[in-house]
């Protein structure tokens, strides 16, 4: 993907964050439809974010053969779940799991952007993508809060996944952490699209 095309996508995405901001008085099916559309937009951009991140980290991250999908990092929420467990989640629990995950991602993406501002201060394309992705997550969290309130179960406070002493890391660990955050975010947004495809069927517009 060219730099100009990637930046064009960012402009479009940034505009749509504002468009899909939820109206607290909207009926539940409208809120779910708005969130489904936002999640699909975020999914489309998640691969661009991951590839752009890898391209700016140097070897081995930028190598064509790089594959570390099994890497995990403490506090980063995993999207993996057995199919039957996922399929039988209640509406409230389904949205709640998304809320918990993206609350963590909002914090981790800020950390990744801080790391990249230190490691790659001239890579404006990547820094902008990380910023816009976090803004879109904030919009998604606003939608999720409205949906949970409409379902009669407003979200409870989520435990802070990051303590100040836990963010210290050397250069390589910062690059690994950023990769895990971007890759796991992509996995989560894939799950969110599936979640809201199911919810949209239950609450058609």
TrEMBL record:
GO terms for biological process: cell surface receptor signaling pathway; neuroblast proliferation; positive regulation of neuroblast proliferation. The keyword Signal applies. Gene3D superfamilies: 1.20.1250.10. It comes from the Eukaryota. This is Cardiotrophin-2. One of its GO terms (molecular function) is leukemia inhibitory factor receptor binding. It comes from Podarcis muralis. Belongs to the IL-6 superfamily. The keyword Ribonucleoprotein does not apply. Its main location: secreted. It is found in: Secreted. Pfam families: PRF. InterPro entries: 4_helix_cytokine-like_core, PRF/CT. One of its GO terms (cellular component) is extracellular space. The gene is LOC114582858.
